[in-house]
Amino acid sequence: MTGALSHLRVLDLSRVLAGPWAGQILGDLGAEVIKIERPKSGDDTRSWGPPYLQGADGNADLSAYFLTANRNKQSLAVDIAHPEGQELIRKLVAESDVILENFKVGGLKRYGLDYESLKRINPKLIYCSITGFGQDGPYANRPGYDFLIQAMGGLMSITGQPDGEPGAGPMKVGVALTDIMTGLYATIGVLAALSHRDRTGEGQYVEAALLDVQVACLANQAMNYLTTGQAPGRMGNAHPNIVPYQDFPTADGNMVLTVGNDEQFARLCDVLGHPEWASDERFATNRARVANRKELIPRLRQATVMRSTQEWVQVLERSGVPCGPVNTLDQVFEDPQVLARGMKQSVQHPLLGDVPTVGNPIRLKLTPVSYRTAPPLLGEQSKQVLERVAGLSPGEIASLRERGVIS
């Protein structure tokens, strides 16, 4: 084991995306991550397909969704509703540093696997709970899902075409972004708690809630409201505070312009053949362009349709104007910059063969991330984990398997 966190063991009792995302990050950074799953069914996302990646002989498969967030993990399938299953978890807790879980509020208390119970076994334990709405408040007992939270947390109210335009209406983001951001915040919380433990020897309880995270990540849009009292609406691909900062049509498709200051705008005007726009008082400053976007944007659109996307990108890049194509995913994973940065990776699995995976964007010079193991089959490492970490004999493990406590 190598990596910045190679001295840590994590029990990942979470499923779907937010918790597993945090567990995968910790695993990429070197931690030993043991994924605790239900026997027979496992993580919900194992069945969220098609598509599935199948082994050459067709005897094993994993859903693409499960592959998203479960590399660098070992799978232990154990029934935590069974008293012997609960005891197995306690044995593992005694030898672990971190727990990740995303059960409903109070869901693990009935099994004696809540923080108050487990910290008596391991006072240094970092226990991270992820829920939809948090451990308290009027919504605490509600289940939370990314799509629901994107709606309730305001993201959908500012995403999509504005009223009166074709396709108008609130729109979710194309990936479960709130889950992913919650996984990131959970990871940060765990690392902060570990830093505190390094200084004091104290473990602690860490909490992350999807709704909290979504509200926090409204960023400038939240402050636009809080400073004016006016709720921002949907603007399609336009930016509420910067102009021009959106998509524009070209002769063969679309491109994106992200003009961040007045100097870049002046260079854009030169390239478009309209240098006079840069000195027009309606457009000379970003403040003026935001106020007069309805006059400026149609002019820009009339100019950008005169060349292809590739032609515009080449000439604008030479002039220092930030721009780019709207890539499809096949184009993304063929992009030379994406490939050069190692964002397309693969790991080997004994039954599935070559398993594709998306690279981790964290760059550490001395302790780089690693791609050690493919996402596991259900219960793939049950025997090894129970022998090595819990200290069970082969006979004890066989007995547990016969009685359905593990698989």
Automatic annotation (TrEMBL):
Ranges that cross the membrane: none
Keywords: Transferase
GO MF annotation, one: CoA-transferase activity
Protein name: L-carnitine dehydratase/bile acid-inducible protein F
Organism: Marinobacter algicola DG893
Lineage of the organism: Bacteria, Pseudomonadati, Pseudomonadota, Gammaproteobacteria, Pseudomonadales
